């Protein structure tokens, strides 16, 4: 069992190793069920970044729904609209004149990308195993062990106990399924591929079958991503043969299936690869390795990431219930272990859907069973894509950000073309959505799509990487991307003729209207609060990065001057953070939208802080009260983070409790918008982290928003900005011990409600205490410091 204990007296960290040899279900970090999955949202996800599968755990049939993360509808496409640049001056003028409907309609006609809808991420297909025998079975159990990233199904059928294990291996880039039985010669089945794509199945030798297909057309463009999946059987005992695309196993003692997938997608502008070569290469490498070796390599690789963080929020009798029953109870107060399971499930999902080699996690991570998923399962970069990566750095999964950085690099290339074509500007821009073809033009409708700050927000994830790691080599690598975004805004920001501020125009506060104009809901505006907050941080990050790297002195001065002219955060007539430059009245100020974009400066930014800017913090609280409880899971997850940043443990915990109910969390713990969107899982994991540890504003704050429902517990291995790894235990709602490792040797300012003493190797460390609840001390690179309550 994963458990962390922090000795209160000495502040020492004691960690017991996971008991991986324990009986199924003994580990609290296990999702488990008493019946097979009847629908997709009951199936269990496995993934290695590039590949994903949903395991249903059936008895008469087993279904593995398969994904390869580069299968997108259509083909390479430039979305930029050559008519946009000519229309831009008029759009801007009408915005200045408050002729919003005219401006928005012209943007719909002339400024949106071509086509105005982007392509969909698509399913590869299914591998179905059909087992002979009776339909009766007993002693059934289905589970996903997060500590090992292995699904297990066990049951008794016709007097024989069958056990199946499945996992997705990042080291070997295959999905592995092993079936064994406690009676020799009892494993037999027929396996076949199916797909809703245009495809053909075939035998690929005596022990393997394959499916070859191509993605579907999109907006008149033929599907161009060719793909292949191959499954090979390696049996102990019995016979293996194929017949016309069906794999037949009879009388085996044990069978291991190796599933390999590949596509022709090389990058957003090149689909000329050979899917058979990709799938065949990985299959050949995995073939011949004993199952135990494949499993051991997979588990070791997974634990290298997953095992960095352990959490204990307490337990109860509810922990003995199946996972779907725990969710259905809606009683988080009596089941604190469910919150810990949810936290670690988010980390598991990020490891499984965002690893190199592979693409960034999309709206559904890597798991999708449709040709036309909700919102095309794209990358929505006005909140959802960024939310996917909120837990990466603090959750000690910094490597999982690399696929996102690859996406940003691609967007800097396509976005430079959009900047030139649609704005006549230098640098690069990305609007509110992108896809496999890395579209950066405005899409969908002007009400949603004419928002130029998506790329700027993404660039701040590059800066966050540096804040957590201090890695100057990676900062130098990422700096051109940040610079390109800054160049775009320096070239396109407009001086508002009414206020003199520098503002974006056209833009909007994502997906929120501010007026009814001649019967039409309009969002188009100049200088919405979210843009100003993002650009304030972008220009600040650029200035700091350029100084660290010793480059771009002249451009740094321009960015700092522009930063000083942005619209400041403002408090409106209802006591709220204004969402726009103007303090709009009526429906605009009272919007109940699930988007809460004007509080970006509270989280993930930190321009609004209860300690440093109490008036703005109070206004942020008022904004949350006015906005109400949105139904979307991701929106509720964002609000957990907001309330934690406001240091309101009760309100943060209330949102977490509301997230972990059947309306917003599926039986397999996937987040529900509804339908499924994975960002809520990642936002919820981030929110729990923010309750336990915050590190913005040059301070590390221990237990800043600890709920009363978790009076005692511990967490090990969270990361804080400044290069610190933090472990802490608490009892009676206060710190009882802790340990901090300093990777960079920087000065540490630590905030905690209980006075602490600091030791290194048992020797007291000299600290200063500038105010109550704060201690400051210098650290050495690589040194570890123990914390204990101080007299």
Supply database-style keywords.
hydrolase, seven-stranded antiparallel beta sheet, 791 residues, Beta-galactosidase, Chain A, domain 5, 6hp_glycosidase-like_sf, 29% helix, Glycosyltransferase, nine-stranded antiparallel beta sheet
List the helices and strands and how they pair.
Elements: E1 3-6, E2 13-16, E3 30-33, E4 44-47, E5 51-55, E6 61-68, H1 84-96, H2 100-110, E7 125-130, E8 138-145, E9 150-157, E10 160-169, E11 174-181, E12 187-194, E13 198-203, E14 208-214, E15 226-236, E16 239-243, E17 246-252, E18 254-263, H3 275-286, H4 291-306, E19 310-312, H5 323-329, H6 336-353, E20 379-380, H7 384-388, H8 402-423, E21 433-434, H9 446-449, H10 454-469, H11 472-492, E22 494-495, E23 502-503, E24 515-517, E25 520-522, H12 529-549, H13 553-564, H14 614-627, H15 633-645, H16 649-659, H17 679-692, E26 693-694, E27 700-702, E28 713-720, E29 724-731, E30 734-742, E31 748-751, E32 756-760, E33 763-764, E34 768-771, E35 774-777, E36 784-789
Parallel strand pairs: 27-31
Antiparallel strand pairs: 1-2, 3-8, 4-5, 5-6, 6-7, 7-12, 8-9, 9-10, 10-11, 11-18, 12-17, 13-14, 14-15, 15-18, 16-17, 19-28, 20-21, 22-23, 24-25, 26-27, 28-29, 29-30, 30-36, 31-35, 32-33, 32-36, 34-35
């Amino acid at each position: 069992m994963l458990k962390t204990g922090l000795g209160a007296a000495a502040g020492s960290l004691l960690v017991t190793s996971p008991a991986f040899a324990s009986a199924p279900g003994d580990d609290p970090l296990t999702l488990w069920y008493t019946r097979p999955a009847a629908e997709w949202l009951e199936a269990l996800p496995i993934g290695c970044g590039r590949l994903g599968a949903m395991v249903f755990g059936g008895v008469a049939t087993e279904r593995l729904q398969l994904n390869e993360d580069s299968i997108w509808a259509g083909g390479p496409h430039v979305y930029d609209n050559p008519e946009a640049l000519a229309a831009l001056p008029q759009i801007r003028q009408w915005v200045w004149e408050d002729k919003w409907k005219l401006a928005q309609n012209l943007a719909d006609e002339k400024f949106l990308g071509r086509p105005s809808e982007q392509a969909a991420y698509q399913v590869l297909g299914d591998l179905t195993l059909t087992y002979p025998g009776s339909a009766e079975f007993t002693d059934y159990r289905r589970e996903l062990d997060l500590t090992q990233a292995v699904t297990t199904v066990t049951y008794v059928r016709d007097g024989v106990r069958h056990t199946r294990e499945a996992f997705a291996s990042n080291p070997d880039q295959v999905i592995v399924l092993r079936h064994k039985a406690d009676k020799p010669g009892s494993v037999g089945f027929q396996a076949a591929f199916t797909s809703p794509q245009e495809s053909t199945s075939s035998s690929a030798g005596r022990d393997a079958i394959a499916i070859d297909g191509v993605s579907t057309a999109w907006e008149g463009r033929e599907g161009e991503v060719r793909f292949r999946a191959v499954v090979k059987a390696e049996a102990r005992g019995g016979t293996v043969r194929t017949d016309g695309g069906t794999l037949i196993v009879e009388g085996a003692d044990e069978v291991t299936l190796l599933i390999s997938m590949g596509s022709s997608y090389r990058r957003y502008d090149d689909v000329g690869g050979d899917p058979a070569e990709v799938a065949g290469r990985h299959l050949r490498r995995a073939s011949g390795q004993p199952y135990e070796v494949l499993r051991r390599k997979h588990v070791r690789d997974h634990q290298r990431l997953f095992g960095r963080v352990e959490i204990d929020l307490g337990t109860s009798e509810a922990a003995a219930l199946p996972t779907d029953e725990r969710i259905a109870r809606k009683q988080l107060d009596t089941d604190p272990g469910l919150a810990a399971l949810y936290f670690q499930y988010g980390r598991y999902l990020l490891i499984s859907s965002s690893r190199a080699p592979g693409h960034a996690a999309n709206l559904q991570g890597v798991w999708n069973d449709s040709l036309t998923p909700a919102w095309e399962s794209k990358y929505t970069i006005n909140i959802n894509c960024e939310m996917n990566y909120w837990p990466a750095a603090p959750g000690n999964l910094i490597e999982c950000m690399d696929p996102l950085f690859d996406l940003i690099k691609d967007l800097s290339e396509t976005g430079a073309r959009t900047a030139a074509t649609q704005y006549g500007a230098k640098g690069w821009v990305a609007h509110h959505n992108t896809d496999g073809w890395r579209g950066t033009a405005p899409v969908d409708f002007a009400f949603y799509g004419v928002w130029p700050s998506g790329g700027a927000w993404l660039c701040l994830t590059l800066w966050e990487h540096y804040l957590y790691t201090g890695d100057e080599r990676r900062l130098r690598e990422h700096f051109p991307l940040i610079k390109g975004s800054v160049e775009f805004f320096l070239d396109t920001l407009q001086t508002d003729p009414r206020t003199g501020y520098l503002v974006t125009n056209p833009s909007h506060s994502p997906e929120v209207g501010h007026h009814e104009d001649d019967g039409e809901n309009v969002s188009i505006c100049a200088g919405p609060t979210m843009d100003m907050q993002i650009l304030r941080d972008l220009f600040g990050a650029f200035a700091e990065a350029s100084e660290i790297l010793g480059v771009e002195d002249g451009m740094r001065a321009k960015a700092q001057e522009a930063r000083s002219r942005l619209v400041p955060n403002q408090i409106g007539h209802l006591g709220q953070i204004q969402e726009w430059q103007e303090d709009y009245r009526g429906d605009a100020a009272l919007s109940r939208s699930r988007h809460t974009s004007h509080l970006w400066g509270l989280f993930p930014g930190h321009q609004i802080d209860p300690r440093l800017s109490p008036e703005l913090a109070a206004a942020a609280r008022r904004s949350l009260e006015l906005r109400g409880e949105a139904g979307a899971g991701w929106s509720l997850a964002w609000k957990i983070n907001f309330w934690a940043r406001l240091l309101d443990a009760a309100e943060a915990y209330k949102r977490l409790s509301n997230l972990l109910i059947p309306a917003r969390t599926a039986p397999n713990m996937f987040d529900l918008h509804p339908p499924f969107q994975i960002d809520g899982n990642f936002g919820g994991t981030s929110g729990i982290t923010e309750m336990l540890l915050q590190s913005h504003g040059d301070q590390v704050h221990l237990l800043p928003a600890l709920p009363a429902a978790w009076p005692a517990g511990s967490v090990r291995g969270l990361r804080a900005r400044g290069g610190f790894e933090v472990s802490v235990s608490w009892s009676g709602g206060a710190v009882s011990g802790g340990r901090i490792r300093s990777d960079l040797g920087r000065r540490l300012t630590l905030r905690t409600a209980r006075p602490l003493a600091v030791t290194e190797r048992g020797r007291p460390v000299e600290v200063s205490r500038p105010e109550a609840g704060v201690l400051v001390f210098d650290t050495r690179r690589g040194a570890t410091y123990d914390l204990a309550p101080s007299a």
